[in-house]
């Protein structure tokens, strides 16, 4: 990731997954706002950093982008 002063990538990814799971489908901006409410990220996290984390999670096939540019947890195949 970029050189921003943020917690470990795994912590950011875990937090993002928890937020997405709670909201079912949520935009990157809303995820960013939710992270701002978290004490660990209160110092600020760049929106670009959130976007990079989302790309990583998408690459790991954990999340997918649905309509209206919202993210959701990828369903397991039946």
List keywords for this structure.
single chain, about 80 residues, alpha+beta, 3-stranded antiparallel β-sheet, 3 helices, about 50% helix, disordered N terminus
Portion in strands: 5-15%
What CATH architecture would you give? Orthogonal Bundle
- The SSE order reads HEHHEE
CATH topology: Arc Repressor Mutant, subunit A
**Secondary structure: number of strands:** 3
What structural class should be given to the helix and strand makeup? alpha+beta
Number of helices: 3
- The first-level CATH class is given as Mainly Alpha
What does this entry look like structurally?
- This protein has 78 residues and is of the alpha+beta class.
- Helix 1 (9-23) crosses helix 3 and helix 2 packs across helix 3.
- Residues 1-7 have low confidence and may be disordered.
- It has one domain (9-73): Orthogonal Bundle (Arc Repressor Mutant, subunit A), CATH 1.10.10.
- It has three helices and three strands.
- Strands 1-3-2 form a three-stranded antiparallel beta sheet.
- Strand 2 (63-66) and strand 3 (70-73) form a beta hairpin.
Question: Briefly, what is this?
Answer:
49% of the residues lie in helices and 13% in strands.
Please describe the topology of this protein.
Blueprint: H1 9-23, E1 26-27, H2 28-37, H3 47-59, E2 63-66, E3 70-73
Antiparallel strand pairs: 1-3, 2-3
